[in-house]
Amino acid sequence: MDDLLVDFLTETNESLAELDVALVKLERAPDDQETLSLIFRLVHTIKGTCGFLGLPRLERVAHAGENVLGKVRDGKLAASSDIVSAVLASLDRIKLILAGLAETGAEPAGDDSALIAALDDAAAGRLAAAPAAEAAAPSLAAESAPVSAADTPEPEPAPGETPAPPVMTAPSPTPVPPAPAPMPAAEAPREGGEAVVAGQTIRVGVDVLEHLMTLVSELVLTRNQLLQLARTQENSAFAVPLQRLSHITSDLQEGVMKTRMQPIGNAWNKLPRLVRDLAHELGKKIDLVMIGADTELDRQVLELIKDPLTHMVRNSADHGLERPEERRGAGKPETGHITLNAFHEGGHIIIEIADDGRGLDLARIRAKALAQGLASEAELAAMSESQVQRFIFHAGFSTAASITAVSGRGVGMDVVKTNIERIGGTIDLKSIAGQGSTFTIKIPLTLAIVSALIVEAGGERFAIPQISVVELVRASSEGSADGDQPVIERINATPVLRLRDRLLPLVNLRDLLELGRAEERAGELYIVVAQVGSSLLGIIVDRVFDTEEIVVKPVAPILRHITMFSGNTILGDGSVIMILDPNGIARATGSGSGGEQRKPIAETVEDATSASSTAMLLFRAGDAAPKAVPLGLVARLEDIPRDRIETSSGKMVTQYRGRLMPLVAFDGVRSEGETQAVLVFSDGEHSMGLMVDEIVDVVDEVLRIELGTEAPGLLGTAVIAGRATDVINIDYWLRAAQQDWFRGSSTDAAATAPHILIVEDSDFFRQLLVPSLAAAGYRVTAAASAAQALKLRESGVKIDAIISDIVMPDMDGLAFARQIRDGGAWASLPMIALSGRVEPADIEAGRDAGFTDYVAKFQREALLDSLRQCLGHMVDQ
Questions:
Q1: Domain range holding 581?
Q2: Which CATH number covers residue 396?
C-alpha cells in the first residue's frame, strides 16, 4: 500500500469520527450553520480525494451524501432526523468500504445502488427509508476501521476565512510532485484586530513514539542506577553532573509523555452517535452531556478504556433511563440525561458516568444474588445498600428483565471491572432509587512510567503503585499497645486493624507469598493501606523504603495466572522486582470490596476462559496422581472441622448452611488433621461435598482427554499443568451422594418440561451439560454436530430452545444459527451461544448470526438464568 493511500485512510477516518459527532449535533440544532458548513466541507474533501485516487465506489457514495448535504446547506431541505439518518447511513457504508480498502489495498466489490437511490430521493425531497442494512449498520464497522496515528487534527480555518485547499483533492493529469517544503502557518484574524498564528502539526507514526518511549524508559532505569551508585560515595566528582543528568532525564521523560497524551474526547467521539442510535432503537429521548473532553491521558490507557466506557454508556441508556411515558409519570422531563465528566486528580484521572434514570433495583439485585447462591438471606439482610449494589460487578450477573440487543446477556459489568482493574484502576458506584446512578472510574494517567512505593517482605522487595496507596500506618502487634498507636486485633482468627473507628482487614504479604512464616513478634509493624474498589485493605510488610519512579514491564506468561502481580520492574541497583496489584491480592485472599462474595482460590484466575482453554481445579486424593475438575462446576471450597462430620444411616453428613449435606470420600482419601478439605457441588436445593486430601491449584489448560478409562468416577486422563491428570466424572460422584440427584419431580412434569437441544462436538462438555440441565427440570437431547442437529429438524423433532457451541468442525455455531434463522420449524426458537469466546466482538458476531443470548462456558448459573428468561413462561406452567 503506497504512502498516498495510507495518508488518505488516516485522514478520512479522522474526518468520519468528526462527522459522527457533528451530525448528531446538527440533528439537535438544525440551524447551526457553522456545524453544517463543517460537515459539508469534510464530506466534500472525502469525495474529492476519492476521485483523485481513483476510488469510484467510494466517490459515488460520498457524492450522493454530499448532494443531500448541499440541499440542506442551500436551505432546500431541513436537517431533520430522517435526513441525518440518511447521511449517517452513507457514512456507515464508507466505513465498511474503507475497512476493506485498508485490508486489501483495493476497494471491495459491492452494490451500493439501493443506498445511492435512497440518498438521491432524499436530496430530491422524496425521502424514503434507507435500506435496512444501512439504517442499522453495525458499529463494528466503525470500530474495525483503521485508527489514526495522528495525535492532533489538522487546524480548521477560522470562521469567515476561505478554507485552505484540502490535501489531495485537486485532480492532476501529471504524476504527483514531491511534497512542498513547509510554509509559514497562515495568520487568522481574531477580535480586536490582532493576529494569532495557527498551530502547526506534524504526523508521526505511533510506532516511532512507542520506540522513543522505550528508549526514555531505559534512560530512566540507567539514571536510577547511577543515582544509586552515587549515594554510596561521598563527595564524588560525579554528583553534580548526575544531578544535572537526572533533571534533563526528567524533563525529557515529561516531554515524551506529552507526545503520548491525547484528550479523552478521542475516546468519546463515537458516543454521541451511539447514544443517538440507542435512543431511536429503545424509543427513548436521551441527551448526552460531555464535560472535560480535553482532559488528557496516555494513549495506551485511552485505548484500553474505550470499550468499558462504551458498555457503560449503553448500560445507562438501556438499564438506567426510563421511557418518556415512565419519566412523565415519575414527574421527570421526558428527556433523560447521561453525563460524562473527566478531570485530573493527583496522578490519576477520574471519569464519572452518571444518569438521571430509575437507579438500581435493590430488590431485584438481592433476589438475583440469592438465586445464584452468591449470598444467603441472612447475609443479604446484613449488607448495606452499597454492598448489595456491587453484586452487579459479579461475573454472569444481569438484572435485565428481558434479553435485548443491548443487554441481558449475563456478561458486562464484570468485564468492565476486570478491564479497569487490569490497568491499575478502580470502579465505584452510587445509586439512588428514582434519581439515577453514578459510576466513578479512577485510572492512572499512564502505564509506562509510574510512581511506586518500594516495600520488603521475607527478604524480597516489591513495588506497590502509588495510585493505590492511601496511607502508611505503624501499628503495634497484639498486647504491645503504646499510647494512641493502633493495635492489631483478631476477629475469628483474622487480623484486623481498628483505624479511626473503622475495621481494616489485614493481609500479611510474607504469608500470602509463602516467603517464610511471619514471626509473631512484639513491637511495631508496617501496614500499607491500599484502595481496593470502594474498600480499604491493609498489607503488612516487613519494611518500607521510599517512593521511586519505575518503568513497568509486563508479567512473564508463566506468572500471568497469579493476579497478585501486575508487572515487574528494575530498580536502581539492577534488582528485578515484582509490582503488586492490591485488587489481585484482595481477590486471592477473599478480601473483596463491597458485597462481592469471593472464593480464595477460584478467584485467582479470570472467570472468562478462552476458546482453547478451560479453568481446572487441581486437587489430590488417594494415590499420588493429581485429579482435576472444571472450576465452573464447583460451588465452594471448604475446610470443614472434623468434629462437624457425623454419620447418619451409615453415610457421612455435615450440617452446612442450615441443612444436612451428604459427604462422599474420594477413593483412598487419607487426609489427617483438624479439618477436612471438601469440594462443594450445588444445584438448587441439592448440595454434596466431595472429600479430598488437598486442594492444589487452579490453572487454565487446553482440555484434551487423551486416555479413556473404565475406573469408576473418572472420565479419563489429560495433560494438565505438565502432568498426567485424572479428570473426574461429576455425574458419578453426585449420584453417589444422592441417587435421586437428577430425578425429575414426576413423570408428568418430565413429559411437559421444556425440551432443550444441545449442539456440542465435545463429548466431555455434553456429559457435563446433559445432567446439569436435566437436574434443572429440562428434557435434553444432545447432538455432536450441527449436521446432526439439522437432521433432527428435518425428522420433525419438536424442541423449545437450542444451546450451541460456537467453535465446531465442519459447520461452526454462527453458520448453524444463520441456517436455523433462514426458515423452517425452528426459525423462531430461542438460541443460546455457549462459548469460551466472550469478547465484545464475539458477542456482537453471535447476535448478528441470530443467537438470542451469549453465555460463557462453565457459567452454569448464567446459562440457567438465560433459559429461564427465554422459557420462563413454560417452566412456570
A1: 449-598
A2: 3.30.565.10
